[in-house]
Amino acid sequence: MHSDQRAPIALKIAAGAGLLFLHLPILLIFVYAFTTEERSYQWPPPGLTTKWLAVTWNRPDIWEALALSVKVASISTLIALLLGTLCAAAVSRSKFFGREAISLMVILPIALPGIVTGIALRSAFNLADIPFSTWTIILGHATFCVVVVYNNAVARFRRSSASLIEASMDLGADGFQTLRYVVLPNIATALLAGGMLAFALSFDEVIVTTFTAGQQQTLPIWMLEELVRPRQRPVTNVVAMVVVLVTFLPILGAFYLTRDGDQIAGSGK
Amino acid sequence: MSTALQFAGVSRHYGAVKALDQVDLEVKEGEFFAMLGPSGSGKTTCLRLVAGFEQPTAGHIEIFGETAEGVPPFRRNVNTVFQDYALFPHLNVLDNVAYGLMIRGVEKSERYRSAEQALELVALSGLGKRRAGELSGGQRQRVALARALVNKPRVLLLDEPLGALDLKLREQMQEELKNLHRQLGITFIFVTHDQNEALSMADRVALFKDGRVVQVGTPQEIYRQPNSRFVADFVGSSNVLPPDFVAAVGGASRWASLRPESIYLTREGGHAASVVAASFLGGSTRLAVDVSGLRINLMLPSAAEIPAVGESVRIDWKPADMHLMESGA
Amino acid sequence: MNGSDAAILPGRPGLLRRLADTLWRHPHLLLLLMLAPPVLWLGVIYLGSLFALLVQSFFSIDEFSGLINYEFTLKTYRELLIPANLDIIVRTVSMAAAVTLAAVVVAFPIAFYAARYARGKWKAAFYLGIMLPLWSSYLVKIYAWKLVLAREGILNWLFAKLHLTWLLEAYLSLPLIGGNSLSVSYTGTFLVFLYVWLPFMILPLQAALERVPGNLLEASADLGGSPRQTFRHVILPLALPGIIAGSIFTFSLTLGDYIIPQIIGSSRLFIGQAVYSHQGTAGNIPLAAAFAVVPIVIMGCYLWLAKRAGAFDAL
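Above: the input entities. Below: the structure tokens describing the complete assembly.
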């Protein structure tokens, strides 16, 4: 839907204001990371300093939380890549009974409120007497990350010609060779994009994590405690800024990988 | 000449749908064989059975005397040129062509040399570094051809390979395909719904209808001696004469076909007719006449005098040109 | 010669090759192998957990011992319907409805501009301008609003600079939506919900508007429709599936959230908070489960209605 007319001025203002509303609060984070004020959220900042960057850098608890988050996000992403790709391949490869049900099942962990997924998993762990550990966190994260990989992979499978696989077999390649030389190279960028989004999703997740974590602290859990009971505002400010920067990279990467053709499966958060 | 391909009572059913039903077929080695028919007639299913993408639900298939059922496509020395070409988008042209050799474990320099040769064969040398997406439709078609031929298959399958090309390019490719066939001596099996293409290129043609083969023969046989109304209608625009008309003009009481170009105008004898329509076609003129209620088309050379619409004329043909058919279906 | 004269090549040796042949011969086996891991994971672990949760809502808790009584009963659901708990449900649903409505109003101009006027580089910029806030950290976004709404924060400072502090105070003195300060009022909670879920409304709405052919609008104008009539009778009905698709997200996400109202808002509970506190400190898993069923049921009805309105094509 395109028009050669100029946009009405009121529409321009409303759209611009909406975008400003979306971005200004995040930009504010960048200013607060350098404030000299320690005890309140005073605006405007009385002064600017970079000292809190160094303080944050030397905090072992933050490094530990960060390391756990990276570990959880990496393993969850790997599991989601495997499960999501298999599911996408099966669904787009053939029509079988219950195909719709499987698509629904993949989307469900993200369609239902996070708290439902969280408490369901928690009570299941309790029933099965599974102690909370890093692995229970990963279990929960992988469950809702599958959909992001699945969406990206399905879109790519749909776009590529079905006869490519036949062509490869026709030229003498068996199933494994076709997988290696034709299927994987063709879906590689979609998988990379899906993997990046899954990583960002897991890295940032807090609601399900609060239910599936025991004593472990991921970075979002650390932040949540600071939000509920602020104790070290300047350090929190810096961490918030770093988190924004770190999550932007995979999003931009995924955008450039998929921009010609399928859209980023953004509605999957 | 030995037999390249043998179908004996081959069927392919999908539930209640009979895509192919009880087909017997024989293709000889080195033949240029066309499978012709409207869409959904079973010709493509037939091709897919030879390639190994599908398995027959009944019957027996032999390729050069060896049983083909249950043999996966990657173990058949048969290659296919796909309708949508199916070039690998992640590989450049040279790697596309070399793919089959790579899979067979042919050493790198050797396979690139062979691939270059194959590209030369289809007049595409020098384009090896391009991506498939950067080529025109005609060029993609040639790459697909080179990719199949480089493996030196015993049988080359072509699935409507010219369907996506414009008329001029199509005619040029028809010529080149025939040359390639002559040059390489490989058995070509060609699927098409275009009767002109089938007649002009093939050594023999099989005509498909509703999952069955209705007639197999040389283009001349198919054209001159159609065995049914369907064949007569589908191949060219033959006049189909009903049994009572055939009996009245001195034949048996059977359906018959009569080619428009076998009919001529005459001053005496023959049959009285009145001209219904005339269209000038360049090299010839097509005349539609009415003979006691039956509409008959005939072709006149352009040099001939063309009667006006509404005029009364007399038409005639040699009795041998009126071909009696087995069925009126 | 690279080719072989045999028409049928022999099966190559090796276990992997044999496996490849077997899988080719039995495509259903291949399909089964591909489906088994995801279906086992999601079907057993996830759906199993959901089912276990549902089952627990039919148990009850013994008031004296505090232990769970594993017998089928509707007692927990009766407890769910006492006025204090109904209050929580009504509060949450009203908030979800308000957030959804506001999201439509704010999202529409952005989506409309992006779909109808933005092109080339601007289109990509708009897309990223919506994607980046969507994907940036949920907690950081809440934190940012904590900074904005703080008593000593930028919003109060702005009102003071404009000499409008009296206006803000008048607003805060209003019943229900007001409070001691913005950060402990329903207005604050509402603003943060709106902010955090807004991109989820923009994207499907934009997708729906992209599909409205531009000449349809010109046709309407051609037939004498004023811009207002065109909007009312052409754009709005065509955008409706997008609005419904977006509202699924804003509604569902608001219903299930427990962190936003905990950090910014009054001390009155939302469904998510009730679930959290019942399962945690109170240890009343059956009641927590029953509370968790509420958003599932509401979303179930909502999805059913949305499906009937054809909203899923816009997802």
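Note for the figure: The beta strands of chain C are 60-61, 68-69.
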